Amino acid sequence: MKLRQQDTTDLIVQARHLYLDYAQSNTDSHHVAVVKDANFAIERGEKFVIIGPSGCGKTTLLKAIGGFLTPLQGDILLDGKPVHKPGPDRAFVFQDFEQLFAWRTVLDNIVYALQVTKRIPKQEAISKARSYLELVQVAHAADKYPYQLSGGMKQRAALARALALEPAILLMDEPFGALDAITRNQLQLELNDIWQRTGVTIVLVTHSIQEAVFLGTHVMVMSSSPAMIREIVDTSHAEEFGSKEFDDISKHLRSQLIHHETRSEEIAQLSAVE
């Protein structure tokens, strides 16, 4: 397994000998191991993508970084301090389209989030909300309700709400997985542009190797559950679809998953062209 040598002063997330598990039911004391002895680090301002077989613990790991799960062993550090609970310094965007409050307009969804988490005056919140809607190109839908939006517009609005909180880390769990191919490709391009303009650290889970290579500056490959880290690959110079480097890295990641006995149906899903 290849791990990066990094200057610890530039790290925003560190996982040290991390073990994660979950109870089989609310009343069951038996726990199932999900992630085993994970050690990795994420640099400030990078796009860190996590791939692996279905059910291997990718989302579980994301929730642990977000502070929603307590490790069985080991710890996660955020800016050098242990993560114990969620906070506005970590914002989530999920695959589910229904992330917005249905009874609030797009603008009000963002204003409400800002007032609750940032405690800023309403007029300031409105101004900030509008600027982030402009950033994700849905300013024209500010006064619409979620049911009036397409799936892609809902994801843009959810992204605007997350970015408006100005988090240290944007945690994204297959945010484009339920979109059609054209909309997904457009949002991938827009996310790269938003990252360039904001410099926010992004941690993203995906099932798509192509999406991982296109979006990621580094891609972490996980094994089947209980998941271990197989490799962390530098993809920062392979953002152009169809380039030799893009294709070579994609093939390498696919070979890593196949080599470690990923089931054939999962490989088909991981290799799908979005």
UniProtKB/TrEMBL annotation:
<keyword id="KW-0813">Transport</keyword>
<dbReference type="InterPro" id="IPR003593">
    <property type="entry name" value="AAA+_ATPase"/>
</dbReference>
<dbReference type="Pfam" id="PF00005">
    <property type="entry name" value="ABC_tran"/>
</dbReference>
<dbReference type="InterPro" id="IPR027417">
    <property type="entry name" value="P-loop_NTPase"/>
</dbReference>
<protein>
    <submittedName>
        <fullName>ABC transporter ATP-binding protein</fullName>
    </submittedName>
</protein>
<dbReference type="InterPro" id="IPR017871">
    <property type="entry name" value="ABC_transporter-like_CS"/>
</dbReference>
<keyword id="KW-0067">ATP-binding</keyword>
<feature type="domain" description="ABC transporter">
    <location>
        <begin position="13"/>
        <end position="249"/>
    </location>
</feature>
<keyword id="KW-0547">Nucleotide-binding</keyword>
<dbReference type="InterPro" id="IPR003439">
    <property type="entry name" value="ABC_transporter-like_ATP-bd"/>
</dbReference>
<dbReference type="InterPro" id="IPR050166">
    <property type="entry name" value="ABC_transporter_ATP-bind"/>
</dbReference>
<dbReference type="GO" id="GO:0005524">
    <property type="term" value="F:ATP binding"/>
</dbReference>
